[in-house]
Write a structure and sequence with these properties.
- This protein is of the alpha+beta class.
- It has one domain.
- It has helices spanning about 25-40, 70-80, 95-110, 130-135, 140-145, 155-160; strands at about 10-20, 55, 85-90, 115-125, 145-150, 170-175.
- It has a six-stranded mixed sheet with strand order 2-3-1-4-6-5, sandwiched between helices.
């Protein structure tokens, strides 16, 4: 987690899991437990991607981070009145360490029968933008700084394999394309 003095904010790794229909509490728990069990079964890695999933059930409030709340609000906007699970944290990704785990995570999430799709965002923290400007940015201004890409799970994993996964892109990943 690298924090820059007068510009930018912390790196962020965020995943919003979108429900297939309406979830009972047991459905939500089964999705969360799938991830917890995967974490328990992994070999001891110093800081693998599954450790970087910080569960959020309410908006984070950090005095020194200017983009946690806009990310949370954006993901809540995506979710609307639907059920879902949000993981959001100040975590950086290391391609050679995390991308294989990211593919495992993506396949694990999308394979669950109660998951319709999920969103994934890695954000470097806008190192080139002054922190005072980040603090004043509206949600719409914030979203204009991001790219948005829809993909099915096969294309997403291929993107990682081909080293074309991009920072500052909100990926909407589904089981398959819907036309």
């Amino acid at each position: 987690m690298v924090k820059h003095r007068n510009t930018g904010a912390y790196e962020h790794f965020c995943v919003l899991i979108f429900a297939q229909g309406i979830w009972k509490e047991t459905d939500k728990d089964s999705v969360r437990n799938l991830i917890k069990e995967k974490l328990k079964s992994m070999k001891k890695a110093p800081y693998n991607i599954f450790y970087k999933l910080t569960y959020r059930d309410k908006m984070p409030i950090y005095a020194d981070c200017h983009i946690c709340q806009p990310i949370y609000k954006m993901f809540e906007e995506f979710k609307g009145n639907n059920d879902g699970i949000l993981y959001q944290g100040h975590h950086y990704l290391i391609p050679e360490d995390d991308f294989e785990d990211m593919k495992d995570l993506a396949n694990l999430i999308i394979s669950h029968s109660k998951v319709k799709k999920f969103y994934l965002l890695y954000l470097d923290g806008f190192k080139e933008i002054k922190r005072t400007i980040l603090n004043e940015m509206s949600l719409e201004e914030f979203k204009k700084k991001l790219k948005f890409k829809k993909s099915n799970i096969n294309d997403f994993t291929l993107m990682i394999d081909n080293n074309t996964f991009k920072n500052r892109t909100v990926y909407e990943i589904s089981k398959s394309y819907t036309l």
